[in-house]
Amino acid sequence: MSRPVGAPDADGFTVPGRGRGLLDVVERRYLLKLLVRKELRVRYQGSLLGLLWSYVKPAVQFGVFFFALGVFLEQNKAIQDYAVYLFSGIVVINFFSESFGNATRAVTGNAALVKKIYLPRELFPVASAWVAAVHFLPQLVILLLGTVVSGWRPTVWQLLAGVLGFVVVATLATGLGLFFGSINVLFRDFENIVDLMLLVVTWTSPVLYTWDTVQRAVPGWLWQVYQLNPVTSGVELFHYAFWFGATRPGAGPAATLPPNLLWHGALALAVALVVLVVGQLTFRRLEGRFAQEL
C-alpha cells in the first residue's frame, strides 16, 4: 500500500526531500533564525561599520535624489514636505529591492548547504527577506523621526495603511524571490534580468514624483493597471501613512492622494498573494533539480 507524500514511515520518520513548502518554514523557525544570523554575520564580516551601512546607503541615496530632483529640478516646491515624501518611498523601494534581489540569489548562494543536507529550500529566500527587514527597521526609525519633526499626527487608518503597505511589498518580494530564485538555479541569466527589473521598478514607482504625474501621462486603462502594481500601492500606502499625516494646510502645495487608495491596496495584496502562490508552486516543481544543477 502506497504511503502519502511527506507522511511518516513505519519508524516515524518523514520521507526525505518531501515537504510542505512555506509551512515547513513556519515549523522550522529556529532554522530560519540561524540562517538570518548567518547571512548578517557573513555580510558584515570584516566590515568596520557593520549594520551602520543600513543608515549610510539610504542616506546617500536620499541625498542624491533630493538634490538632483528636489533642489535642481525644484520638486520640493511642487510637493509639500518633499523630503518626507521622498524618503517614505525610498524605504519601501529599498526593502523590495533587497528582498527580491537577495532572494533570487539565495539558493545559488547557499549551494554548499543545498548539496550536503536536506532542509526546506524555501528557508533561503525567506531568510533573505528577513535580512532585508532587519535593514528596513533602521530606515523606518529615521523616517519616523523625520515625520515627527514635520508634525506627523497619524490616524488609525494611516497606521493600518503603513502596515498594509509593508505586508503587500513583503509578500510580493517573497513570491517573486521564490519564482526567480528557483529558475535562477537553472539559468543564471535571471540574476541580471532581476537587476534590470529592479532598476525599472525604482523609476516607474511614485517615489521621485507624484501619482498625478503618471495619470496625466498615460491612458486611463494603463493608469488602472499602474495602480494595481503592488509596489505602487505599497509606496502610496506609505505616503498616506507617513507623508500625508505630516503635511500642513497652507504650508505649500496641497497634498493629494490617488483615489480609492485603500481599495487598490487590498487588490494589490490579492495580486501579491497570487504571485506568492505561483512562486511557491514553481519553487516546489523545480527544487528536486537544485542539488544536481548546483
From TrEMBL:
Keyword Ion transport: no
Record carries keyword Cell cycle: no
Membrane spanning residue stretches: 48-73, 79-96, 123-145, 157-181, 261-283
Domain ABC transmembrane type-2: 49-286
Localization terms from the record: Cell inner membrane; Cell membrane
Any single GO BP term: lipopolysaccharide transport
Signal peptide positions on this chain: none
Pfam families in UniProt: ABC2_membrane
GO cellular component term of the entry, any: plasma membrane
Entry's Gene Ontology molecular function annotations: ABC-type transporter activity
InterPro entries membership: ABC2_TM, ABC2_TM_bact-type
Keyword tags: Cell inner membrane, Cell membrane, Membrane, Transmembrane, Transmembrane helix, Transport
UniProt topology in membrane: Multi-pass membrane protein
PANTHER family xref list: INNER MEMBRANE TRANSPORT PERMEASE, TRANSPORT PERMEASE PROTEIN
Similarity remark: Belongs to the ABC-2 integral membrane protein family.
Protein name: Transport permease protein
Annotated source species: Kineococcus aurantiacus
